[in-house]
Amino acid sequence: MSAKPVREYYGKQLLAKYIKEFSGGAHDFEGRGILVKSGVNDPTHAVTWETLLQENEWAKAPAKLVAKPDQLIKRRGKAGLLAINKEFEECKAWINERMDKPWKVEQVEGVLNTFLIEPFVPHEQEDEYYICIVSNRDGEEMLFCHDGGVDVGDVDAKAKRLKVALTAEVTEEAITEALLVPEVPEDRQKKLASFFVTLLKVYRELHFVYMEINPLVVEKSSGKITPLDLAAKIDETAAFLVQQKWGPNIDFPAPFGRAEFPEEAYVKAMDAKTGASLKLTILNVQGRVWTMVAGGGASVVYADTICDLGFAHELANYGEYSGAPNDEQTYNYARTILGLMCRTKREGGKVLIIGGGIANFTDVAATFKGLIKALKAFKDELIAGDVSVFVRRAGPNYQEGLKMMLQLRDETGIKMKVFGPEQDAVAVCPLALGLAPLDSIPDFDPEAKVIHTVSKVENPDGKLVEPRKFMSAAAKTDALGGEKKTTSPQNTFSASVSTMSTQQFTKETRCIVYGLQQRAVQGMLDFDFMCKRARPSVAAMVYPFQGNHYVKFYWGTEETLIPVYTKIETACEKHRDSTVMVNFASFRSVYETCMETFEKHSDQIKTVAIIAEGVPEAQTRRIVEEAEKKGVGIIGPATVGGIKPGCFRIGNTGGMLDNIVTSKLYRPGSVCYVSKSGGMSNELNNIISRNSDGVCEGVAIGGDRYPGSRFIDHLLRYNDNPDCKILVLLGEVGGVDEYDVVDALKTGRITKPLVAWCIGTCASAFSFEVQFGHAGACARGMGETARDKNQALADAGAIVPKSFAEFGKKINEVYSLLRNNGTIEELQEPEVPKVPMDYTWAKRLGMIRKPANFISTISDDRGDELKYSGMLISDVFAEDLGVGGVLSLLWFRKKLPPYATKFVEMILMVTADHGPAVSGAHNTIVSTRAGKDLVSSLVSGLLTIGPRFGGALDGAASMMTDACDTGMSAKEFVNDCKKKNVLIMGIGHRIKSLENPDMRVVIIKEFAQKHFPKTPTLDFALAVEQVTTQKRSNLILNVDGCIAVCFVDLLRYSGAFSVEEADELIANGCLNGLFVLGRSIGFIGHHLDQKRLKQALYRHPWDDISYISDI
Fold it and tell me: What is the tens place of the pLDDT at every residue in 481-528?
């Protein structure tokens, strides 16, 4: 949602903060107010009546105050919800009487839980004025009434109006002339005009989209201007621009009449943390019909259909998930809905509809993983509650996703019906609601191929339906055999249209793609190849974060290179034949990239498609205005793009190649459509291909309030395209752009048959305002409801079905009529082109297999969470495995017992360093002082580890273990080594002796003897020590030998490995690995130490070198 209402308290706080600043001190609104919330009577609560009064001394008696609810309630005075001219204790008592109590305001009943206390401003009726500022496509409009207050009446009918262009500054003179004279007294005009100038500045700077002040009071004595009541909406998408100015505490409350469910708050929080879209509104928590629909447009279509079929009272929720949420997000979203649904049972059971249009780029199977996980978790509750699940989904990898659903049904016994794109999106609704037999539509068949054939619409007597009048009265086309009527001069189409209305895409159209969107570009090139274009439609890409380079793509079976530049300017200079920019810049940077394109390259770039969602409305309007000045057409923002079969494709429009083939988008048909929804545009491709000869061109203009191009722009260029025979419009609730189409029909500017439907008819069935998935899908004024628009379109001569479920049928009716009268000629279907499938995608679909070049068994980073030997990283921390535990997982693929992991950590500690004089540390220090980096210095030290330094661990383990295993006594072993003239590895120390033991050995030995199940190898080594120390007291078991034999005992007798497995691990070098890992700690320490000391280049002293020349 883009425009969100704010509490009156926060709206006034913003005015108080910025009115003085923006007026240069000419106006000063203190904005004093106390926000009182539920819990204020709880003495343990952080905010109580006492603390509120302490923080707001201005409210203490005898100050006169006003109290009222602050919950987006309109006409509070008429509802008896105003306490006027009261002292604080009276306000307190008045609020306490109503706090947390239900209250009915007109037709809506809700619980009062938030109140506002403000200073009372004494005034007369003639001191009250009404001012409203509302944003529109071209700027702002100011509405003013000189008689404001509770009885202001019909503002739309009586208010004076002043339109202010988007980038224009309003003057006091203009305001005075248009709004104030002659009703406002002359002595007040200048002050009010000045205040309104400042108000508009604040409005624009803080990205308000609506602000109504009624009444606005001008005090007689002082002339001070004070807003008494305020209602405002803010563009939430502008948070990244002005959040600091808004402040951290601003909130967007739920509409009065319903408290926000904790589950809604949870989903809202999830949505805020992801690039995907997750929405949930609870309509009737006791309802029987629940939905989980993918896509903003599709979610509305499903809600419409359920309501149109008579089940509005049973619809439990509205929501949508889209934008490729990951497994965990989908799981949490589904779990939230299932938890709410299963909370209560209904006689006859409940229904869950898992639906969606045909996705453009979201991997259906991937999103289904999280959903299936949630369904499994609620299996028992679903079965106990007699819940029936109906699934209809399509898009990338939908076959695998639907197979997974069928498998889930077989494994769990959950009642489920599964359908794919062979059925229209809402075909499942009559089944789910019990209005059609369950066997009337066959389940999804994984083996069947989807083939679209166009059926004829016939009457029972076998004749085609009679031609009907579906033209405007002003222009009845002779396409159906009717007479051509001349448009009367006074009834001429006069709506403003954008540059986009004259743009046409061809097979020669080429584009520049902003952003490193390799998947989208490859999809465009695959489409080009299918359409037999001579060369790719993508000429270049722009990515400012890397140097100029090339990226490799496939062109059929061959490979081609697409250049990537860091600047738009360079791309345009080198590719003069590119006339379209597909802009994938983020919502944070898309404004700058578009403005740069308009300013410097509008002579070349004639169409810009803006893909980003969440572009602030103010920036969008400026983009649209500047584009029109420069003669550049805009598609978007928040668009998936558009497609012209056989010619040109923008981004991911049309989805994967299999959908392009199924919907016959590789060759032109006769039907042109325009839609707000990207997901539903793909559904339209499907519907049109099933009910006509296919799509001639289709565009999704985007779901924002102010799309760069509107329905009329595209319908006019379609109407002027001789290849187009039928027009299709899919509008939606919110905005007034459909009325330009109505005018074009009435005046005869549109002469071709138009099949139209506006989604969002369900809105009238809800008792409170619901913001649907698209930012612009919310009625803000008269005529913006879907029902009003559908009626207006029908009255103007468009073909408007009874519901979206009949949309395809109406298209088929018109197509059949035009085909029969010869307006549309049936063409021979060309051979279906074949494009090789990418290896990665083919493998994901399970169509091919290939041996891997690498095998890894110790870690996996492919899922939502890193795993070590199958153990989630979060579990590693939850179980506090430590470094030793991680090492055991990654080195041994085992979760060793705590004493074992502790021992590993002890080894790392005792081997970490042995002073700067040993060879490894010495090399590290020398390399560091030579200016080498950390890695180079570390490697220099590590390369000294071998038989003479650190290698004693492996040697000691091997010698001691072999002797112990053969049953030799310690004395026999020592004598045998003496005979062979072999040093005993792990025995002997230069300094330490029996009299001066090495404490490292003592610690390790005692730990092993105390905690290990068995220590036979250690016992043998200690026996050898008794023999060797008889000769010399420093021939003790040293730290290398002690570590080695203890580690052998640990691996062999911990229960995690067999003797053979333990010996193999040691043979593979894990003992040496422990020394390398431990000593790396010390080497890094020496490197950092030398850097810290800023030691100069090391040169060995010459007097420490023996120079010998005669040898």
Answer: 344 333 333 456 666 677 777 778 999 999 999 999 999 999 999 999
Backbone angles phi, psi at 1005, to 5 degrees: -60, -50
The whole-number pLDDT of residue 696 equals 96
- Helix (H) and strand (E) counts for the chain? 37, 35
Query: Taking the CB of residue 401, how many other CB atoms lie within 10 A of it?
Result: 26
The CA–CA distances, whole Å, from 164 to 136, 709, 1076 equal: 10, 21, 73
Tell me what pLDDT residue 768 has: 56
Render pLDDT for 95-120 as a digit per residue (tens, 0 to 9).
999 999 988 888 788 899 999 999 99
C-alpha distances (whole Å) from 194 to each of 22, 27, 441 are 11, 9, 67
Task: Identify the burial level of 485 via C-beta atoms within 10 angstroms of its C-beta, where 0-12 means exposed, 13-18 middle and 19 or more buried.
Answer: middle
Token pair recorded at residue 201 = 């500045």
Sheet (strand 578-583) strand order: 549-555, 558-565, 538-542, 510-514, 578-583, 607-610, 633-635
What's the rounded Cα separation, in Å, for the pair 1094 and 938? 17
Helix/strand/coil percent split, the chain, to 5: 40, 15, 40
Q: Which residue has the tokens 């021939």?
A: 1035
| Residue 452 appears among annotated catalytic residues | no
Q: Over the chain, what is the mean pLDDT?
A: 89
Question: Which among 706, 746, 554 has a CA at the least distance from the CA of 622?
Answer: 706
String of DSSP letters for 678-746: HHHHHHHHHHHHHHSS-EEEEEE--SSSS-SS-HHHHHHHHHT-TT--EEEEEEESSSSTHHHHHHHHH
User: Which helix (H) or strand (E) segment is 419 a member of?
Assistant: strand 415-419
How many beta carbons lie within 10 A of that of residue 187, not counting itself? Answer: 9
From 146, 575, 601, 774, the catalytic residue:
774
CA angle 546, 548, 554 (to 5 degrees): 100
Do 859 and 869 contact (CB within 8 A), yes or no?
A: yes
Q: Tell me: the pLDDT tens digits for 648-681?
A: 999 989 888 888 988 999 999 999 999 988 888 8
Query: What is the model's pLDDT at position 970?
Result: 94
471 or 921, greater pLDDT:
921
Cα–Cα distances in Å, from 215 out to 15, 35, 141, 152, 647?
15, 20, 18, 9, 57
Please answer whether residues 81 and 103 qualify as being in contact, where contact means their C-beta atoms are separated by less than 8 angstroms. Answer: yes
pLDDT of 323 reads: 80
Residue 952: partners with Cβ closer than 8 Å, 6 or more residues away: 985, 986, 1038, 1040, 1041, 1044
Q: Is residue 162's pLDDT more than 90?
A: yes
Q: What is the pLDDT of residues 215-254, one digit of tens each?
A: 999 998 888 999 999 999 999 999 999 999 999 888 888 8
Residue from 482, 468, 487, 483 nearest 750 by CA = 487
Q: Specify whether the CB–CB gap between 882 and 903 falls below 8 A.
A: no
Q: How far apart are CA 441 and CA 452, in angstroms?
A: 16
- Nearest one of 332, 319, 234 to 281, comparing CA atoms: 319
Assess whether pLDDT exceeds 70 at residue 468. no
Bond from prior residue into 325 cis (ω within 30 degrees of 0): no
Query: Which helix (H) or strand (E) is 391 found in, with range?
Result: strand 388-392
Which residue's structure tokens are 């890094």?
1084
**Cα torsion 1025, 1031, 1036, 1041: sign:** negative
Task: Please check the confidence at residue 624 and state whether its pLDDT lies above 50.
Answer: yes
CB–CB of 681/695 below 8 Å? no
Burial category of 129 from C-beta neighbours within 10 Å (exposed 0-12, middle 13-18, buried 19 and up) = buried
Q: End-to-end distance of the chain based on CA atoms, in angstroms?
A: 89
Return the closest-CA partner of residue 123 out of 92, 84, 162, 89. 84
What residue type is 777 in one-letter code?
Answer: A
The confidence score (pLDDT) of residue 836 equals 76
Distance CA 84, CA 80 (A): 11
